Each structure stands twice: as C-alpha cells, then as structure tokens.
Amino acid sequence: MRAQNGDQSFAHRCRVYYEDTDAGGIVYYVNYLKFMERARTERLRELGFAQSTLAGEDLLFVVHSSEARYYAPARLDDELLVSAEVIELNRVSLRFKQQVRRASDATLLCEGQFLVACVRTNSLKPRAIPETLRAAFAAVSGAGKQSKQEI
Hints:
This protein is of the alpha+beta class. About 20% of the residues lie in helices and about 30% in strands. The chain has one domain (about 10-140): Thiol Ester Dehydrase, Chain A. The chain is built from three helices and six strands. A hairpin with a 5-residue loop joins strand 5 and strand 6 (about 110-120). It is elongated, with a radius of gyration of 16 Å. Belongs to the 4-hydroxybenzoyl-CoA thioesterase family. GO terms for molecular function: fatty acyl-CoA hydrolase activity. Keywords: Hydrolase.
C-alpha cells in the first residue's frame, strides 16, 4: 500500500478467529503481539527476504523489547490491518512502530513499538544487519539514519 504523501506504507490483513478471543468474543490482549509479529514477517517478505532464508545465512531477528497500548477491542470475525513501519535503523537493530486497526472503520485498536535485534543463528550473539537488508528498510522507511543508542 502507498500512502497519499508518496511515502511507502505497509499493512498486513488478517482476520480474528475464535482461537484469538476470550469467552466474550474479544481478542485476548497478547494476541495483538502475534498479529504484529506476523506483520513484521510479512514486511520482510514484501521486501524480498524470507526468514527461513535468512536463518540459513546465520541471521535471526529477535524481539529485544516491546511496548503496547490498547484502545478498543477487536472481536470475532473482524478484519484487521496491521502496520509495520521501521522508525529507527541501527547497526544491529530495528525499531518498529506498529498499529492494529479494524479494516471496516479504521478504528485504532492497539499500537506498539518493538526493538528487534539481529543475531547469529547458533550463538544468538548480535551481528550487523546485512547491507542489502539495511538498504531495503532504509528505502521504504526513511529510517536510514543511525541512532547513537544501540541495544
């Protein structure tokens, strides 16, 4: 999806299933984190990088920290739009800003930020994000400027 201002935006569509809800038919709070994880994975895929391929190249992305705020409930059968925007790009980490909106009326349901670290597959030690991946994220996010603070 492209935003009106010419910047690229991204949203992953998903549906709320019975398994995502509590007894009242409302999405259980931790499932928003799953929706956002899937959107980050699909963002990578859209840029041409599959996590299965990256793992074969000794690269994994792991969540270092997360923050979420909940505004309104999603319910059984709602269709959701889940964004995944890189707002900070460092040598070994990415910070994503994400939002979950109801597709039918664009109501903001949940938003969060996630610091995701790039690590080696076997040792889980930090490693630099490959230049091709860094360039892909910088091209779509404008977050190519390195932060002074690393993980």
